[in-house]
Each structure stands twice: as structure tokens, then as C-alpha cells.
Amino acid sequence: AHLARAPLLHALMHPASTALLCRYPQRAAAAAAAASAASSSSRAANKKGWFRSSARCLAQGTPSSVTPVRTSRVGLGAPSLPRRFVFIAAATAAAAALIPGRAMAWRSSGDTNDELVDNLFSNGVISNKVYADSMKRVDRGNYVVKGPAYQDSPQPIGYGATISAPHMHAHCLDVLGDWLKPGARVLDVGSGTGYLTALFAEFVKPGGVVVGIDHIPELVQMSRDNFKKDGRQRLLDSMEVVLVTGDGRLGYPQLAPYDAIHVGAAAPAVPQALVDQLAPGGRLVLPVGPDGGHQELRAVDKDARGRVTERVLMGVIYVPLTDAKHQLTRW
Q: Which of 299, 3, 96 is nearest to 178 (CA)?
């Protein structure tokens, strides 16, 4: 009955809740086992006020005035989370059948690439059939290093990096879709194993160019190998896709300006070099926020006169956009 209360459902449907679950899927499963105990405890202590406070806490991204901020070591292999987030993850898992649309992203996993994409589309995570068809043409299984390739969650690719969850790739296609046109020039910062770079290439041909840049040489070579494995070597040979090693925070001025720029890691602030390399009328999409802190996915638009505006799209959790040395210390 408490899960049906509107304030809690609003919190569970917040994108930050989705991102939390998809970033820490093991924790969500582990926390679900404690959901009933947590629910009983909350009923004993002013349940209505607790739920409303937690809803405000998640929606605003600020500490709850009711629940102490402590950490909980639930699950393995990831940083600890505040207890209030663990409870919300547990409640979200328990209430999964009640929440439609984007908040159902973690239920979109499949056994094949087509099944994954079909589930993302039927759950409303992918809004456009054109995006779904493009995702079907690029088999995610050729770009995931280890782990379940068709699970809708991030997967490690080594060197302190991850490949984002499929629902985040779908969302980025959605917010960049109007800029991914034949002949467009696109920059993918933190290109990793090359998956999203390959997806972008589906939209900009003929005549377009996609640059994937990563500061880990081994990942750049891996992405080249993945393109070959996925039958896309011709894109590299024709320079329709350019995969380079470099500091993505500085962009890639050799082929600028870009109609669309995507950044796959969280910057503490919007890098000015990327804004400078954005073409008039272009869009930059990137997560912004501190490592382990409150992060937002932002869209940065430059109009025809060069004026720049920003807007927040959703709350997210990404690995930090940093230098190669610092990234490797996380590995």
C-alpha cells in the first residue's frame, strides 16, 4: 500500500533512480532482500513523513532531513551507497511492475541484441523506430568485453572504464537525433570499445564523419578490432570513422567543428574546448558533476550566432572524465 503513494512513486520514476539501479544492478538485487524489513522499520517511524522526505531527497538530489546519511556495503565491486539510496533501490525493485516507461529500463534486458532492442522499444525507452533499427544493425555483443552483452546495465571494459547501459545509449540517440543527419560531423569523447561511435556512423552516412577519441591506447585498438569483427572495417578504411588516441577533454580540433558532440564520462564542468569545437547550430551532450557526487546529463546548444545555452536533461551516474593516469588507478 505504501508503494502506491504518489510521492514515493514520483521519486521512483525520477531518472536518478533509474540510473542508480542500472549503474549498480547487483546492489539493487541485494537490497531487494531487505525491502520488507526496511518497509516495516519505516512504518514504525512516521511512515508518511518518511516517504515524503525521501521523495523530496531523491527528486532534489539533497540529503534527507529525516534519514541519516550513512553508507552501506551491500554487494561487491562498487562504491558504498547512502542507506537511503539502498532503501529506494530496494523499493524500486519491489515496485517494478508498477512503473512504466523509462523507469523500466532495467527490465529491458534480452538474450540477443534484437531482443534487447525490442524490449527497450516496447518499454518506451527507445522513442523512435529509426533508433531501434539502427541499434539492431550494430550488435552490442561485438563491443562488450565481458559480462552479459545484452543486459541493460553498464559493463566493465577494463582500464577503469565501462560501456554504458543500452538505455543510456538510446537516450543519447534521442537527444542528439536531430543533429545526426547525413553529412554531419560527430565527436564521441571517451569512445571506449567503439559501440556508440558505430551507432553514430549509422546516421551520418553518406558524407558524414564520426571521430571516436579515447586516451587509453589499448581501448582505441580494441575499438578498431571490434569494428572489424562487426563487419565495419570499410568505415575505417574510408575515413568515415576515425578512431584516435588523445585527451578527449581537449576535443579533436583537426576535424572540428562538429555538429554533435557526445561525452561518455562525467566532467566536473563543461570543457570549454568542446564548446569551442561545436559548430553553430550544434549540440553537445555530456554528464556534468563530481566523481561519486550529484551528476546531471546536460545538453549544450550553440545557435547560429554562436550563443551558448545549457539545460539539464536528467540525473545520472557516470565514471569521471579524467586523465589516463588517474583513470588507470581505478582499474
A: 299
Is residue 180 within 8 Å of 199, Cβ to Cβ?
Answer: no
Q: Is there a contact between 214 and 187 (Cβ–Cβ < 8 Å)?
A: no
Judged against a pLDDT cut of 60, whether residue 179 lies above it is answered with yes
What does the alpha-carbon distance between residue 187 and residue 262 come to, in Å, rounded to a whole number?
6
**Among 250, 291, 301, 297, CA closest to 272:** 250
Out of 17, 109, 164, 223, the active site residue is 164
pTM: 0.71
Helices marked H in 177-216 — which ranges? 195-204
| Model pLDDT, residue 292 | 87
55, pLDDT greater than 60: no
The Cα 164–Cα 325 span in angstroms is 21
3-state SS string over 85-110?
A: HHHHHHHHHHCHHHCCHHHHHHHCCC
Q: Backbone dihedral region of 251: left (phi > 0), alpha (psi from -120 to 50 degrees) or beta?
A: left
Question: Does 164 participate in catalysis according to the annotation?
Answer: yes
- C-alpha separations of 201 from 138, 165, 186, 297 in Å: 10, 19, 9, 22
Percent of residues in the chain assigned helix, strand, coil, to nearest 5: 45, 20, 35
HSE of 238, CA atoms in CB hemisphere, 13 A: 13
C-alpha cell of 287?
Answer: 554528464
**CA atoms lying within 13 Å on the CB side of residue 263:** 35
- pLDDT tens digits, one per residue of 273-326: 999 999 999 999 999 999 989 999 999 999 999 999 999 999 999 989 988 888
Biggest alpha carbon distance in the chain?
66
Q: Model confidence over 145-175: pLDDT tens digits?
A: 988 999 999 999 999 899 999 999 999 999 9
